[in-house]
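Dear H.,

Thanks for agreeing to be a second pair of eyes. The structure we're designing against is below in token form, covering all 258 positions.
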């Protein structure tokens, strides 16, 4: 507990410039807990006060939706031969995930998208659901998206949910079939023809913070779109993107000035 208090104090240093004009999104929940698990999501909402929580979505061999970034779980102490696309949800839930973050070791179990959305509803935060490549959720095959939409609808979060992905054709499918959902296109860098596509498909840019420029902000404003950026963990980076005009900032641990 003492270590956690020390960590939280350190995280507060230099963050007073953060304020409510920025909409903060907790990256994979937050730094406090194994990433993409219930503890990290709950701490993102309760300790950090983030308005949104971002998760990554992967698909199990039995077509269940779980929150995780990679195909394997080796970063959290699981044998690399065990992969999400080849393992059932029940088998995954039996595993203990271990992750050390800022010198604190956390343990957890894998979080389903259903559990994540329940947390978003309970703590009144909006979901940012990042689609990673998986069977039934990819540029060539979106047959599992109706199941994901049903979960979003189950928790009454259709109007609040943001779908984020780098998969262009997946976004075209969503805009064509689920126009009520907000969509963001994840880009490491922005090309000229990206603006044309975003305007055509009514999609917002979500840009790596190192690639946010005055032009990106200006061109987005011309489309009546805000700009989202990630993953901003240093106050100087936050100040730069805020001054440029980014509205949505995804972070692991920046604190909102209450």
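And this is the sequence the design step returned. I haven't edited it by hand at all.
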């Amino acid at each position: 507990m003492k270590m956690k208090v020390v960590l939280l104090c350190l995280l507060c240093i230099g963050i007073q410039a953060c304020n409510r004009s920025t909409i903060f999104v907790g990256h994979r929940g937050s730094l406090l807990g194994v990433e993409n698990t219930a503890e990290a999501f709950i701490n993102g909402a309760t300790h950090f006060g983030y308005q949104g929580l971002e998760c990554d979505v992967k698909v199990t061999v039995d077509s269940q939706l779980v929150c995780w970034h990679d195909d394997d779980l080796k970063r959290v102490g699981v044998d690399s031969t065990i992969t999400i696309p080849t393992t059932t949800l029940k088998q995954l839930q039996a595993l203990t995930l271990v992750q050390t973050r800022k010198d604190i070791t956390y343990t957890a179990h894998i979080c389903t998208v259903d559990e994540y959305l329940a947390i978003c509803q309970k703590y009144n935060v909006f979901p940012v659901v990042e689609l990673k490549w998986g069977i039934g959720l990819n540029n060539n095959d979106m047959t599992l998206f109706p199941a994901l939409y049903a979960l979003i609808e189950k928790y009454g979060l259709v109007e609040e949910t943001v779908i984020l992905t780098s998969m262009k054709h997946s976004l075209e499918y969503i805009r064509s079939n689920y126009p009520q959902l907000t969509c963001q296109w994840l880009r490491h860098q922005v090309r000229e023809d990206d603006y044309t596509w975003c305007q055509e498909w009514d999609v917002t840019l979500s840009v790596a913070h190192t690639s946010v420029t005055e032009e990106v902000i200006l061109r987005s404003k011309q489309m009546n779109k805000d700009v989202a950026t990630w993953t901003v963990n240093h106050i100087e980076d936050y100040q730069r993107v805020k001054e440029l005009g980014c509205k949505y900032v995804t972070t692991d641990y920046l604190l909102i000035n209450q």
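Two observations from my side: The radius of gyration is 18 Å. The longest helix spans residues 2-12.

Warmly,
E.
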